[in-house]
């Protein structure tokens, strides 16, 4: 059963009894209260929608033994902190925080309530009952870069980015490197909109890139189809993250780098119920069946598709990383020496662009 933000704000949830350890099954009449808090509307597409799908998988798994409260369009900052605290006061013992900016408030809440288990998207802080989680989008965007370069006539690719955080920077860098593996002359321009949800700004950013001659655009962490629809109207190829937006670009949709959070959410809830939840960083990719690519455009040639599938196989088995040296940054300096593969810590903290990305990072 899912409760909406509106009903949540009007009424309090019934408090649930703390679960004894270990618990092989629910006690009579016992319900696990779960709260999902996201920064944008959980519509039919996008990041928040994908997280909601993960909680629907929990509902399918546990039926009436679980109650999910969806709190959407919650701005980062004091309002989010207040709402987080209210969810716990109202009896929710499992929280999913769907935005990087919820980190500090969520960590404080976790320390004050050791009986509550918290999953936090895109962050890096860990506590015994606080686990950050994220997706290795860069694995999929590398493949999208290969496809984009094969179809581009202008050799100019574009990206509309939400915020200049490492998770998005790595996606852009991998996209660029994948494209350059097919055509070394490829360049990538970026417009940052500094918002997770701003349809008007996203559409204007897409139009600005198209005006610069970009003929393939990456919609990087937009929760609306604004970029996708603008590119379809202009006849430019486009792809996005998290969930398919093909219905908004039936002709020019390049594909999607999708995410499936259901397995991770199920595993985490099961650990919470069993009393074995331990805070740990979960950075999930293709091998964990979290990141996938789908909806490839039929305009991609059979030759290119075969090359993409060959690289896809190496990403799946871990024998290849897009961040394998030598790599040069956009200032022309060596960023990764030949033969060196960047480790997770370096990728998770990436604050530089590879050569070929023409837009400087915001200061």
TrEMBL record:
It comes from the Bacteria. Residues 33-308 form the ABC transporter substrate-binding protein PnrA-like domain. Keywords: Signal. The keyword Protein biosynthesis does not apply. SUPFAM superfamilies: Periplasmic binding protein-like I (SSF53822). Residues 1-27 form the signal peptide. This is BMP family ABC transporter substrate-binding protein. It comes from Cypionkella sinensis.
